[in-house]
Amino acid sequence: SNINLNRRHLGDNFDERIQQRHQSFVVTADNRYIISTGYWDKSFRVQNT
Question: How many domains does the structure of the chain reveal?
Fold first, then answer.
């Protein structure tokens, strides 16, 4: 099986002091965007899938 085909890399700028949990990520209802939090600059990011 090709499980790795659907993986996304969100970057390496996460704040190491914050433990990443499932609450740090959300996918929009249409599955077009991933919203992630926990970055070193206290930002959130929206990424196109």
Answer: 1
- Residue numbers of the domain that contains 22: 3-48
Token readout for 8 is 């996304």
- Give me the tens of pLDDT residue by residue for the chain, a chain 49 residues long: 556 566 666 666 766 777 777 778 899 999 999 898 888 888 888 988 8
Phi, psi of 8 (to 5 degrees): -125, 145
Angstrom CA distances, 47 to 2, 9, 19, 36, stand at 23, 10, 21, 8
The three-state secondary structure class of 17 is: coil
